[in-house]
Batch of 3 targets.
Target 1
Amino acid sequence: MAALEDPRPAVNGAAPHVSKKPKLSFITESELRDEFAHHQPGIARLNNGSFGSCPASIIAAQRRWQFRFLRQPDDFFFNQLQPQIIQSRTVIKDLINADHVDEVAIVDNATTAAAIVLQHVGWAFAEGRFQKGDAVVMLHCAFQAVKKSIEAYVTRAGGSVIVVHLPFPVSSNEEIIAEFRKGLARGKANGKKVRLAIIDHITSMPCVVIPACELVRICREEGVERVFVDAAHAIGNIHVDVKDIGADFYVSNLHKWFFCPPSVAFLYCRKSPVSPDLHHPVVSHEYGNGLAIESAWIGTRDYSSQLVIPEVLEFTRRFEGGLEGIRNRNHDKVVEMAQMLAKAWGTNLGSPPEMCPSMAMIGLPSKLGVLSDDDALKLRSHLRDHFLVEVPIHCEVPRDGETGAMDADGCMTGYVRISHQVYNILDEYIRLRDAIIQLAQNGVTWKTLQS
Amino acid sequence: MACPITATANSNSKSKQTLISPSEIQSEFSHHDPTVARVNNGSFGCCPASIIAAQHRHQLLFLRQPDHFYYNTLKPSILQTRLLIQNLINADHVDEVSIVDNATTAAAIVLQHAARAFTSSAFQPGDAVILLHYAYGAVKKSVHAYISRTGGHVIEVHLPFPVKSSSEIVSEFEKALRLGKANGRKIRLAIIDHITSMPCVIIPIIELVKMCRDEGVDRIFVDGAHAIGNVEIDVKSIGADFYTSNMHKWLFCPPSAAFLYCKMSDELSDLHHPVVSHEYGNGLAMESSWTGTRDNSAQLVLPEVMEFLNRFEGGLQGIMTRNHENVVEMAQMLVEAWGTELGAPPELCSSMAMVGMPACLGIKSGSDGLRLRKHLRECFKVEVPIYYREPLEGEVDPITGYARISHQVYNVAGDYCRLRDAVNTLVKEGLTCALLLK
């Protein structure tokens, strides 16, 4: 791994700093390959969405920070950590167009952010600010961790849950907006007070860009007290402007599409009277100093992944158009690949291109017979083990009364979610194409292959 | 100071010729700032270069193919760590062992559980939680955040310091327990340090746990943050319901990893990690093994750590014994040089000792202690935490400041000589903490 240098500082006290020399040219193809040379060769790695990716130069930067702590941890704790976290928070604040850096807390991941917001809701129930039966709204395809967090902190405390079902496959934003409006109204039918709505900015499975601004506006119109946008996938994937979106809470993972090492996320909390009441569940001596400060010290940890954010911003500037250029090219490429696959398989995209971020859902040939989540997982393992293709698979069984999307042979219930990140190449998508074609040949379902 | 490796027969049959040498030890810790007299292993611990390298290998395995790692490698690797810990601490079942980020997280888990009991009325308002006055700051805040907030009554037990013997500690605790139970108050949870942080003293934990049981305390949580790799831990002997310790302090793990032991009971299924993932409901160990995408690599290097320990004469036991002996020797050297005294007798010192600082330094508050610590760090490159002890009324020329010195395998006598000389210099120059303010 030529790109991984000895991270220990050569000179006593030398500070790793962000390079200030003017950029003469953009990153070259071979530099790009080097940056991701630690990825397992031979794998068609089409799943940046699940766990993200981190370039070698950022890993090296992370190690430099790690060694700064290990070298003299007390000095690091007393003198370096807090200012450096503020630097990271400031970079994020600018990226997402937040008003105040106080509104930006850095946490481990979106799952932690959900726990913070939902524990806050849990306290409100326990302390009588919310009444039993008051509701929390979520999308039916919310991330499983978020659903469980709602169970742990809301249902358990006596709150009720309104589940809004969004259509998939989907043809337009209008469909989503209409369904959301209906679902919300239905849920409120018994005069339930809706305390919180949790809306994905980009749903995970199936993957679709949600018209978050409109849905937040609808929530406000319908008297929903607070809105939490779960944008785990968003930053580095689509444009993020938290003032535009207008939510009370907004979280995104930085290790998915923003090249940070595992793991780091930001939780934006718009300044409001409840801000002082938001707490990190892991309580340290910083308790009561505001969520951002609490989150910056949750006991001894390796905070190095949170400290490389300035270096990551520099990394994105090595690409034409910076982060925006990366996003646009990822989107264009993934749509191109998706259309190539749909054509080869005789299927369709799960959503139109404008609702795809740097990921796309493509229907699998119906004859593969992916009829359950279990089938989807098994097919995914089969692709990994036998074809060295890594791609997550979603099963969408049509709801009662619906016929679902069809291909020439029947109902499409299986979808792959392909990602495109800067390291991906055409060959990887061709390998996926051919693997599926091979599995679907001769009317053989992958299940018979299994037995 | 005696050379850390002595040529005595040891029971480890193969390892005689593979014992680590002093220069190899220095090499393992060559990433430490060589200009610093680093006598504070207690705060943030340390990690040998070969373990950092192992951690990086695990990290790269994830980065290489994260999906494969997640589906096939992570769980078995964490299970390996849990099995090693189970063995180290003499737990009955591996289900009783969860790996968490640090003791602060473990405290949040136990205290959130108690908070639920208050809010669901399983506990009544005014039911008590008892903890030491010397409990770690984060634990006190956690008690405030979860217990005071839900109506629990908090009792702090003041322990003597300086302290002459464990029996002083036992009798103070007994008094506080009796007082706490006065008027029929129910004590729902006792939080007891195995080794207090500041001031640093080994607590007679077995007696205190037994006392709590005898007095009908519902549940006992031992905060052993400093314990593993420092003193022996036998969770069955100790008999607590919950026991936590940090593996990055004295067990050579990278930051950060800790274990939380929870004795099997019906209540065990209702313990939850506050960061809820799809594993919710599958038991604390499972919940803790996945709290969303993380870098779990610090939790996975325990097998390599075991190998590292075996490079030392007597393994972990040998390390603990020599650390203790060396720190006591160094502490006695310092009290003699400064004309002061130890805060606790050797048998209550672990691999750390509290050394009285010359009274003329005028340490009159916690802030003074911090300022003096900073001064020592910046002007003498000596890193040592300083504890402020409020003097009792009528004390003449009281010792109010104590340096908490640590000894870990990388320390050498010169580190403590530098501390000695730095303080002597300050005394000679007539420096006081009041002067530092200017």
Target 2
Amino acid sequence: MAAGVATWLPFARAAAVGWLPLAKKTMPKPPVDKKSRNDEILFVNVSGLRFQTWKNTLDRYPDTLLGSSEKEFFFNEDTQEYFFDRDPEMFRHILNFYRTGKLHYPRQECIQAFDEELAFYGIVPDIIGDCCMEEYRDRKKENQERLAEDTEAEMATDTPLPPHSTSRERLWRAFENPHTSTMALVFYYVTGFFIAVSVIANVVETVPCRPLKGSKKDLPCGEKYSLAFFCMDTACVLIFTFEYLMRLFAAPSRCKFMRSVMSVIDVVAIMPYYIGLVMPENEDVSGAFVTLRVFRVFRIFKFSRHSQGLRILGYTLKSCASELGFLLFSLTMAIIIFATVMFYAEKGTKGTNFTSIPASFWYTIVTMTTLGYGDMVPNTIAGKIFGSICSLSGVLVIALPVPVIVSNFSRIYHQNQRADKMRAQQKVRLARIRLAKKGTTNAFLQYKEEGGFQFRESDSALCLKNRSSFEHQHHHLLHCLEKTTNHEFTDELTFSEMCMTESVGYRTSRSTSISSQQGVTTSCCPRRAKRRAIRLANSTVSVSRGSVQELDTLQVHKTSAGPQSSRSSLNARTEDLKLNCEDRDFTAAIISIPTPPANTPDESLPPSPAIPGILRNSRSSFTHETVKISSL
Amino acid sequence: MGAVVGTLTMQTRQRQPSRDKIDDELEMTMVCHRPEGLEQLEAQTNFTKQELQVLYRGFKNECPSGVVNEETFKHIYAQFFPHGDASTYAHYLFNAFDTGNNGSIKFEDFVMGLSTLLRGTVRDKLEWTFHLYDINKDGFINKEEMTEIVRAIYDMMGKYTYPALKGDVPKQHVDTFFEKMDKNKDGVVTLEEFVLACQEDENMMKSMQLFENVM
């Protein structure tokens, strides 16, 4: 219901008195309105800018934040005002909506910011007044298109392939984005080269060459060097066929691929050759065959895969279909009108070219497009007058839809330029984002290394750098997660190294064949990890992950352990190159000693992909000591 | 070429009526009415100053020109009764408020009507209702007028009612009403008959009190 109607409600209710004499039943009791009816001025403080308004004004729209009891959450008792920590400039428009009942969209504001403010205040954007609705819709659509483009661009080009993509998916990707691999790029350029060669060959073979000895007539080169041209044609067609079959194989949806424009062009480009092969050397049929050769020129359209500009042009023409249609229609109308007029005007003249109305079409077209070949010319005065009107109107009719097409092309072209620029900047942006992410994960790892977990103890707290309470709490949270999953965070470098060495270590451990329970687990090799987990479970050994207990066990093994055979190489590498193996080794060692139960380390990965979780000994300070211990 | 000429002529023809409409609207907004002073209104009606202030602020916000015309009135009423067609009843109601019969309600009319309905005596309210029913303002309510009003009220209900409207319900309603009101059975109801009959109706008297706290 519109706002202002609320003002009239008391009036309508009062007028209900008029129904009383007619009423068959007694009237129901009216709702009791407990709060006082006196209107008061409310103070609304939005980031320091104070607004004042009648309470009734805000009550007009009870399903918004300001009109409902939701605003009580923002009431500040001390200053007796409603405080909102939002944009004061935008609030002006919001408040105007309450006052006038019409929501206006400020043109200089960002559409997303405006939308967010509306969402916060509980106002539906659909009630924007007609004066501003067009602008709002256009900007919103533009913004959405831009966002869709960006996400598309993000996803399309530079995302690394999922690790277990089939060869078919990889092939398709290589075809769609040749920049991804060198092979694809090479293939891309080779096909481009052959398209050019094929087109040039088609062109050159019609050029007249010097005739053979003993003949006077000029021969087109195609017939003189027919074998050479045939070989070249065959080679090109073979490459195109191969490419098409590869694309067909790699396409995720073959039906959709076969219907796409590019695939149709491919087929049309290579069909004439095969038809020519199949067709016999028959004089009657070869006429038709010659016509088929025309289709070879479609090979030039294959360049649109290689050229961005061509694609834009094609897309523009497609999007301007209605304007082009209008142009065609109006031209047709005009041609028919003027052709008729010219025919009847020139009918009397002897030996005239305007033999029929269709014959006059040619004149009309030539005149309207201001070509003016001069092969058909009016002779009568009437004909000349109408001819001049024809040429003048031709200019007008053609000039009308052209600006629309041009503006469309310009918009699409600029969009594309922007998309390319975005993509280039995207790489830099992503790199920066990755760096920032690494920074935060490194912060946590550093925190751990600096003994952050003992911050409860007073002396070690001093050695921690000044960190905000937010960071403390965040790190505590990450630590809780580690404890929950019984995995630890590490960085990418370490993880990849460990993955590599894990395979080595696993093999060597097998060869040394120490206890069967001994094992290396990294979650980068889940299959192997699973096997190990089963083995571990069978042994029903659990490792205590309590900090104090671990310390104890570690210290226990400090003395008893000897040099490790396979692990030492791994351990010696970096201080943080600790595999789960150590814990496993604890496991093995602990078997003999009855230990308090703990939880078996599970192989599950912590959810965040940026921080791959692998089991690792977190106390780097201790790892130094336990490096040499851990072997069993 | 023909298309171009055609579109040109169409445009010129369209421009004419819109220009007239704009002129009309300008005229409307030119006519700005200001009500009498606050004190006078307070004296004439039964509202306090604050109440008048609140009423006027609402009124002025809706109608910056200071007057309500019938179209706006019908539109507003239609919003309150979206189920059916409230235009006929709104028309009668408009006439009841428009005491000056000049086709628009000023703030004074608005406030006077409200004052009668909300703060007036029972007699005042009954008189007002009588004037509402008396469409041609001749001092008598005959069956036709009553039927019109009742039909208008039933129109506001719309099509989908429970129980469904079968037969000529308005007519039956009017007959019942006339049975009750027309004491001397002369086919018309005068103001006195009307007031008397209503005062006899206990339920009605009780219901009258319900609307006092609307403001």
Target 3
Amino acid sequence: MIEAAEPENSREWSDPEVHEGRLGPIFEDFAFFFSRVLVLFCPQSAVDLRSFACEAGAAGNSCIKDLSLGCVLFVVPVLTKLEVESKVREKNFRCCGAMTYFPDEVVEHIFDFLSSHRDRNNVSTVCKAWYLVEQLSRLRVFVGNCYAVRPERVMARFPGMKCLTVKGKPHFADFNLVPHDWGGDALPWIETAARCCPGLEELRLKRMVVSDESLELLARAFPNFKSLVLISCEGFSTDGLAEIATHCRGLRELDLQENEVEDHGRQWLSCFPDSCTSLVSLNFACLKGEVNTSALERLVARCQNLRCLKLNRAISIESLIKILARAPNLVELGTGSFTADHRTEAYQNLLNAFYKCNSIRNLSGFWDAAPRYLQAIYSICSSLTVLNLSYAPAIQVNDLIKMIRHCFKLQKLWVLDSIGDKGLAAVACACKELQELRVFPSDVYGTGIAAVTEEGLVAISSGCPKLNSLLYFCHQMTNAALITVAKNCPHFTRFRLCILDPVKPDPISNEPLDEGFGAIVKSCKDLKRLSLSGLLTDKVFLYIGMYASRLEMLSIAFAGESDKGMVYVLNGCKNLKKLEIRDSPFGDAALLENVGKYETMRSLWMSSCDVTQGGCKALAAKMPRLNVEVINEREESDEMVENPSDMHRVEKMYVYRTLTGPRDDAPDFVWTF
Amino acid sequence: MASYVEDTELRLGLPGSDAPASRGSKRSLPENSSAGDESCCRNDGSASAAKAQVVGWPPIGTYRKNNFQAMKVETMVVEPEASGLYVKVSMDGAPYLRKIDLKVYKGYQELKEALDSMFKCFSQGELSRKEGCNGSEYAIAYQDKDGDLMLVGDVPWEMFTSSCKRLRIMKGSEARGLEFRQ
């Protein structure tokens, strides 16, 4: 029987304070408690009510503890009677269905505690009432694929949206596999937002084409605009930045990460008016051109809340010193070139400047850093949590080791492979708090002397038990090393290994690396992202399908032997969201084996595989809610391209779920079946 | 290593470049890839580019790749280019440096005159040093490829321009020390 159990302090519900939005502390606890219960009942959540109750008890919150340990189970209206009864039998709980009687404001406040998009998406599918409450109170919206849904639809559903994140091109666009004018234009999103959501405050775009026209519109259409983050975007110049600087009153954040920005002059920075004092974060490290340094110094001086400043390569040490003098409270700093012309004085001034900056926790830049200047930062190394030296090829391994020894609080380290196994051993000794390590190749063409091998990785794994995120470019890897790493670090959520020579086997046993990666997926139960490399057979995919149940993104290159490999993954990884494959022998049979799977995923990319045009057509015919796009790049010598047969192998295919049907901005080399 | 086999293989394409992937092939990477070829000269950016790499491999982001190319050019040894041979000129005691194009001058005399006029505001007298003259306050020195500080004027002009990395106008006692170090 389902009984309605009264919450302990039921008089709180009818208290007029609740309806006016001022909520007492006990209600806050209730709201939080119910939000955890919602998460528990919603699919794919990871919250354990029992552990939550223990935490609450430990924190002295006896009210919640009694509720949960006192066997009150909250029933979500969509659960069928059968499910409810089985749960009751299973857990021997008393049930209550109180939530359907809560007023909307109460439900809305409970939803406030749901921070992840996934949780909020889930509660909105429970019933119509909840859908409406959730939609009107949603502030942060995430669109993982700009072509999955129209901007109008998003903004009609979430009229109160304050923060929008949109992603455009597929990930392999980073490696030149997607033609330049494929799509991903940001303008429709900005135009629609200007019409429908003028209260927009934050916009984050990744891998999209952003024109100066878009930036101008953005600057003028949103009076409360506070934060612009552009990652791996292109299509704009410093003119667009000048518009943002000029018109966005109250701008707090301008964060440009790894964008291709055309340099139309240095004046954009001077466009920040004298009245602009609100900047908290300014990152223009990716800009190639000169910047008006005196304007920058004045800007930094008047923005007292500035905490993150990342300078570009054009900024010399002399300018850096002046800037640091005006911004001693910086938490994140990108140093600029870190080199100077007039030597001896600069070093002393730099030392003094850094001495005063006690708050710096995150350092990057060092583009042209000479070893002598590195010593100036030793005073702050011991408080650093993030250090990015991956753009500093001039730093030699011995200077690196000397510096790393001081960085015992480091949590995130990005370096070049010139650090060598020896340098990694030093990191393993010094940085016990390390959670994320990225080792990039210093020689982009992958030729030359071996820099890091499996030894460095093993050293890191044994010295840094908290390691959970890895990107590692190396010349070789062994199964034994991977098995050791899997044992030492079972907490990996991101594991990306790139052996520079594709299809390279274990150099000691000459075997494929199936067992090594198998050990990783078996041991790391929370693995969300995996990139494979080296010689791999279908077996590794069998392991992945079997063990990687939390995997969301898988990148495959030059791997596998037959269709079976891909099928193992599609049938096994129930949380898979993004699958990208290149140069692997998977064909139509694999593609068409489990077509329903693709609607549970964001996207599938396959290039230089064995999928044919016929296979793509068949997929498109079976699954009308997918866009099956084929990219046909013409080669001059090729006459067959005009009317290729169904047997014709497809070079690049991109499949994604969508509510909009074929996109209307597809260039002529993109065919949607 | 299979590298010599590849050299003798008949194929289309320029010598030194791998054959481009054919349309019908199952893999775009040849089985015996020479990606680990140690004989390849690392410093020669143009040779690496000619060696046609697999598109998008290794998977390094375009932004990072472009930055590396820019950085490699800077850290490479400066070769004399047709477009000009700029070297920095520092003068002891001057607050900033200058840059001059050595290709513009035909010989040491012209160079000294140019430096004289450039740095005249910082010095009281003539910079040009004549043989045996001990009334000058300054000596012009340069840093060569090996990093050594050399007195300007000893070697033929062409040899000088090809090995000079940096110029330094030294004053007083240090300068006289150089004079005697023959």
